[in-house]
Amino acid sequence: MINEDHVARTVEKITEYSKQKGNKSKFGCLSPPLFASIPVHRVVPDTLHLFKRISDQLINHLLVELKTFDNIKNCSASFDVKSCAHIYRFESFIQSLGIEWSFSVDTITKLVTARDFTGPELWKIVSNISLVDFTPCHSKLASLNKIWINFFNLINTLKYTLSTEEIITFDQSAKKWVELFCEVYLKKDVTPYMHVLSHHVAESLQLNGGILSQLSQEGLEKLND
């Protein structure tokens, strides 16, 4: 974020590059910052959205695999989820957590779909899921389990004030988590939120006294639920 030796850029540099012609001259800065008066070191990753967006990705990847196991493609309106063992097991698990949620068929695309989960629902899922119940024959089940468990542990750590040593440990664990993710999925599946988790959260912790939870927008987000 602030170390220019690691290609960090100031708001002024981002604005300058965004005005250049040709993508190579922009260095990835396609647009000027929305809030040009806020320096980069004052930008704080929001732990709630880190959790939600990465959890969404993990669940989406899992659902793709479950649908593949059930050989689901296009479906008719008479689709019965009970005839698809893997996704039915997942739906039953979600409902066992007290969450009103189910699969349905989109009338236009004919694809099996479902609504997104809220933050509290995602927390229930990530803290209770057992992947062996859904993908017992997965060729990389051990690594898949670690991805979910280690992600939960990383996010849970951010609830507390961390010492310098704990921040270093978090930084190392977050980078290892992304490496593990790439062992199971493709590198192109790494999202910007995963990049922030592994490369910017520790730095932000150092800049903000080892704590991010008090700077979260969770209180405001509850108004949207």
Please outline the major beta sheet.
Answer: 2 strands, antiparallel
Assign an overall shape: globular
Radius of gyration: 20 Å
In round numbers, the mean pLDDT is: 90
Determine the number of helices (DSSP H or I, runs of at least 4 residues): 10
- Residues in helices, as a percent range: 40-55%
Summing up helix and strand content along with how strands pair, one would put the structural category as: mainly alpha
What is the distance, rounded to the nearest whole angstrom, between the alpha carbons of the first and last residues? 32 Å
Strand order of the largest sheet: 1-2
Describe what you observe in this structure.
This protein is mostly helical and 225 residues long. The protein has one domain (47-215). Helix content is 51%, strand content 2%. The protein has 10 helices and 2 strands, in the order H-H-H-H-E-E-H-H-H-H-H-H. A two-stranded antiparallel ribbon has the order 1-2. Strand 1 (104-105) and strand 2 (112-113) form a beta hairpin. Helix 3 packs across helix 8. The protein is globular. The two termini are 32 Å apart. The mean pLDDT is 90.
Tags for this model:
225 residues, mainly alpha, 10 helices, 2% strand
Quick description:
With 225 residues, the protein is mainly alpha-helical. The chain has helices spanning 11-18, 23-26, 47-69, 85-96, 119-128, 141-157, 164-184, 192-199, 201-207, 218-221, and strands at 104-105, 112-113.
